[in-house]
Specification:
- By secondary structure, the protein is α+β, with helices and mostly antiparallel strands.
- It has two domains: 34 residues; 73 residues, von Hippel-Lindau disease tumour suppressor,  beta domain (Immunoglobulin-like, Sandwich), CATH 2.60.40.780.
- Helix content is 27%, strand content 32%.
- It is built from two helices and seven strands.
- Strands 3-2-5-6 form a four-stranded antiparallel sheet, with no helix packed on it. A three-stranded mixed sheet has the order 4-1-7, with no helix packed on it.
């Protein structure tokens, strides 16, 4: 009888002590997003509402916008969209927009 009690106490004590140790070992999470995360891009449409073609610069890429035609771009957040060539109303290098995640799916009308 004493052996059964001793065995029961040993099993209970070891299970109580092993529980926090096994929980602490599984609480270490590796940053999965850091290893497999994709860089997010923002889908943005530029629409030329003027009567003449306009050239804009999105980051390092120069994009020609024909009159009345939309152009869809996938850009990184923080990319600056500026006029590449001067127009009647804007100088070359004037800021049109700085891309952010809040502009995802938006259409920017350029006059």
């Amino acid at each position: 009888m004493k052996y059964r009690n001793l065995l029961a106490v040993t099993v209970v004590a070891s299970s109580l002590l092993a529980s926090p140790v096994s929980y602490a070992a599984t609480a270490v999470h590796s940053p999965v997003n850091a290893m497999f995360g994709k860089t997010k891009t923002v889908k943005l449409t530029l629409l030329n509402d003027s009567n003449s073609p306009v050239e804009v610069k999105a980051g390092e890429e120069v994009v020609k916008l024909d009159a009345g035609k939309p152009v869809t771009l996938n850009l990184q957040p923080g990319t600056r969209v500026v006029y590449h060539s001067a127009t009647e109303t804007q100088q070359a290098g004037s800021l049109i927009a700085e891309v952010s995640t809040s502009l995802n799916g938006a259409t920017i009308h350029i006059k």
